[in-house]
Amino acid sequence: MAKAPSYHLTISADLSNLAAVADFIAEFSRASGLDDREAYHVQMATDEAITNIVQHAYHGRPDGRIDISCERHGDELVIEIRDKGKPFDPSQISTPRVKGPLSRRTIGGLGVFFMKKLMDSVEFSHDAKLGNRVRMVKRIR
Amino acid sequence: MKTTQVTVVRPRGRLDAAGAPALDTELRQHLALGHRHLLVDLSETSYISSNGLRVLLASFKAARQSGGTLKLCCLSARLAEIFEMAGFDQVFDIYGTRTAAEGAFVE
Asked: B54–A110: do the CB atoms touch at under 8 Å?
């Protein structure tokens, strides 16, 4: 059996790296047999996760390090992103109000909302030594 | 019925967290100059993230407050799906073509 593709990328916490991350995810998605729509979903979920890390965990400090790894396990694509920024507590993220009139809309938490909507599972964890980890899974249909 | 002076803005490439601030600046500048009727043509926009959506929503609210509006046109199928997920298709007037969008600005 062919070895499942495994990809790694380390970037500094700078928003100018988002386009490179998108290319990296596109390549992994293609190699894993995702169609364009699924690949777009994985790209966007990853983009939102990295943006959160840059803007919130590292507060715009561009020297922070972010490690991204992508693997395929059977019919699941697993994207794992690690950082050593401020501990992330997902319970503090509000859920955006995406229905109803404009005046009642709230858009805080839209990034995490998209991650959950676009992927089959999203888990956040924090370890004092290893830092923050977000693990996202997309099932290949 | 009189047609309205419409300002068209056409962002190119990625409206991610790195690209969204430039659009934000451009839209705010137009509003500050009194260009209240804005059309954002997304035909050259390959990607939009939550940061890009926030910029559009903020300018939409600002345009409405000044008696104008902000409409959108020419979304790819990928972008249209993202707008729908966030319920933004219910907030914005979205048109398939620029001509249709421009024709919809009437006073």
From this structure: yes
